[in-house]
Amino acid sequence: MLLKRPILALILLFLVFESEARRGRTRSRTKSKVQIGLPITGKYRDPESDQYYNHNDGAKILQASHFDLEYALGHKIAFLCTAKGSPRPHITWFKDGVEIFAHHYLHIHEWLIGEDRVKSKIEIDPATQMDAGVYECTADNMYSIDRRSFKTDFSIAFD
User: Fold this and answer.
1) What is the pLDDT of residues 41-51, one digit of tens each?
2) pLDDT tens digits, residue range 64-107?
3) Membrane spanning segments where (predicted)?
4) DSSP string of 46-107?
5) CA angle at residue 149 from 63 to 89, to 5 degrees?
6) 57, 143 in Cβ contact below 8 A?
7) How far is Cα 31 from Cα 1, in angstroms, rounded to an integer?
């Protein structure tokens, strides 16, 4: 009986040290000294990235729809995006990360403004539950890319 207690004590001691060692290792793995995303200054860590995204002639979105939109089922919803750049940027629309193409209930309109601007609008009429999601307007030219996202969800309107 005396022999079993020291063995049990050693096993418990071993388990305590092992769990402490594991806890310490996992903590050090999750700590990161690298900042993810853009710094508050708007400057990129990499000079090439900074030069690309902040190029004077690069695509810049000047006007975009509100970030969060709640729409009524059966009504029309529309998103607007205006961009400038030299050469004139091209605007592409995405829903939940997939490029959107016009179809019977979704129309994409585009207006060229002057030499360096473009305005694009998508209209969905009538809007259904399937139209809820995250929409994205992407403006790009040979110098840079700019994008804005719009989150949508539906509400049921009672007349």
Assistant:
1) 456 677 877 77
2) 987 788 888 988 999 999 999 999 999 999 999 999 988 889 99
3) none
4) SHHHHHHHT-TTS-EEEEE--SEEEEETTS-EEEEEEEE-SSPPEEEEEETTEE---BTTEE
5) 50
6) yes
7) 46
Which amino acid would we find at residue 68?
D
What is the pLDDT averaged over residues 99-118?
Answer: 93
How far is 61 from 134, CA to CA, in rounded Å? 18
Amino acid at 79: F
- The pLDDT of residue 6 is 60
What does the alpha-carbon distance between residue 153 and residue 68 come to, in Å, rounded to a whole number? Answer: 8
Question: What is the distance between the alpha carbons of residues 98 and 120, in angstroms, rounded to a whole number?
Answer: 17
What is the mean predicted confidence (pLDDT) over 19-44? 43
**What is the C-alpha to C-alpha distance for residues 68 and 63, in angstroms, rounded to an integer?**
15
Kindly state the DSSP code that residue 32 receives in the 8-state scheme.
-
Residue 111, CA distances (Å) to 58, 67, 80, 103 in order: 19, 22, 11, 19
